[in-house]
Specification:
The protein is an all-alpha fold. The protein has two domains: 208 residues; 195 residues, no CATH class. It is built from 17 helices and no strands. Helix 7 packs parallel to helix 9, helix 11 crosses helix 15 and helix 12 packs parallel to helix 15. The longest helix is centred in the N-terminal third of the chain and has 37 residues. 38% of the residues are buried.
Length: 424
């Protein structure tokens, strides 16, 4: 038993997952503290404005987030093949494209900030700062993908911790000095600034110390078409998964009262912990499975380990959510009501199935198996239509979500088995 425990602790996959889990947990804590400080230092009206502006930034972030998974997949392949020259060329070309896109974003917000501000009934300066936050955040996916691809998970996690902590300190100081919404936004703006400054230094050090670039006899041309082609299905997969796990709340808001929506949202906040709990596994499995796939290794072993660990963590949390829902609601939200209590356990169960599905999605993307994307999109449409047509109660809606969560997991497992059978 001692030997097995030591082997488990020394397992590189387990170690990297623990590092990323610690990093993402601290990032989550700092982000939560940022909102807690904001809600205390701002008036309810100002916090509502700030929250609306953050929603704009988050919506833009969702549009560019597939770029991170896409680049991690290709960067890892170049690294596994030892083609560091191609890696450097692709990185250079990607940044050139991003500079062009960032310039267009700058022009858009410079021109349309007054109109957006008028629609939202806020100052145009706030909208313009949001534009800068979005602009700088564009560079986060390719930079973090480099460290994720090289499996430098300690650096990956450290950057996230320093970035969010810097944002927290800056924002807290500015808000305490009475800068209000402007202080909140400037705190958010320092996040990507910290990330870019620290990451560029580390990237240059990585290329200088760990990589030997040989230019002689090699062309400076590189084709980004395969990356673009891969980016589209990844985007569809991520958007579909986001809708699968979130569309129910939007439809509840449409069909039910504000009070019922509030109860449902509170239960969802508890249940979604099961979804985010094993998220570190998805971050780690992508480069490791890609590397194994490219070098003719056995990537399925990483999937098996991930599903076991995710199943254990989600299972324990779901058990607690069913047995002690009142305790969880009071500790996590500070609020309790019978409706949320009845939904919390079911939410945790549904999100647990989706958490396992998200790990499999990252595995399939790593092994370049994209056949699941269309099926996932169809499931998203079917779930949306089902809830839209049949929604007699909050419990029934949640049961529908649970059914589709189970179906998505089974479907993805079939995709994994089918791929293995073909390879065999």
């Amino acid at each position: 038993m001692k030997t097995k425990i030591k082997a488990f602790i020394k397992d590189e996959f387990i170690l990297h997952t623990a590092i990323v889990f610690l990093g993402t947990s601290l990032v989550g804590v700092f982000n939560l503290l940022y909102h807690l400080i904001s809600v205390r230092l701002l008036s309810p009206q100002d916090y509502g404005t700030f929250n609306a502006l953050v929603s704009i930034v988050m919506f833009a972030s969702m549009a560019i987030s597939p770029l991170g998974i896409t680049l991690t997949r290709f960067f890892t392949e170049y690294i596994a093949r030892g083609d560091f020259f191609k890696l450097a060329l692709v990185i250079k070309k990607i940044f050139k494209r991003l500079f062009l896109v960032s310039f267009l974003i700058f022009i858009f917000f410079a021109v349309f900030s007054p109109q957006i501000a008028k629609f939202l009934k806020i100052q145009s300066l706030y909208v313009f700062i949001c534009g800068w936050i979005i602009l700088l955040s564009l560079f986060s996916p390719p930079i973090t993908s480099i460290f994720q691809s090289f499996q430098k998970f300690t650096i990956y996690s450290t950057i996230g911790i320093i970035t969010t902590f810097g944002k927290l300190v800056t924002g807290a100081i500015l808000m305490s000095l009475g800068w209000g919404i402007l202080g909140c936004l400037l705190g958010y703006l320092t996040g990507p600034i910290f990330m870019i400054a620290i990451s560029l230094l580390l990237v240059m050090s990585l290329f200088h110390n760990d990589i030997n670039l040989t230019y002689q006899g090699k062309t400076s041309k590189v084709n980004l078409v395969p990356i673009y082609k891969y980016f589209l299905p990844v985007s569809i997969a991520m958007i579909s998964f986001t809708f699968l796990t979130s569309i129910d709340v939007i439809l509840v808001k449409h069909f039910f009262s504000d009070l019922d929506t509030g109860y449902y949202s509170i239960a969802q906040m508890v249940g979604k912990i099961a979804l985010f709990l094993p998220s570190a596994l998805a971050i780690v499995i992508l480069p490791k499975s890609t590397n194994a796939h490219v070098t003719n290794g056995v990537p399925i072993n990483f999937l098996k380990k991930s599903l076991v660990l995710a199943g254990l963590s989600c299972g324990i949390f779901t058990f607690i959510a069913f047995i002690f829902p009142e305790f969880l609601l009071k500790v996590l939200t500070g609020k309790f009501n019978p409706t949320s209590k009845s939904l919390a356990g079911l939410f945790a169960l549904a999100m647990s199935f989706y958490a396992l599905s998200w790990i499999i999605i990252n595995y399939l993307l790593a092994t370049h198996n994209l056949k699941f994307v269309f099926s996932l999109l169809i499931l998203t449409i079917l779930e949306t239509i089902t809830v839209y047509i049949y929604h007699p109660s909050l419990n029934i809606i949640l049961y529908i979500v649970l059914v589709f969560a189970v179906i998505s997991l089974i479907l993805l497992l079939v995709m994994v088995k089918t791929k293995r059978d073909i390879n065999s």
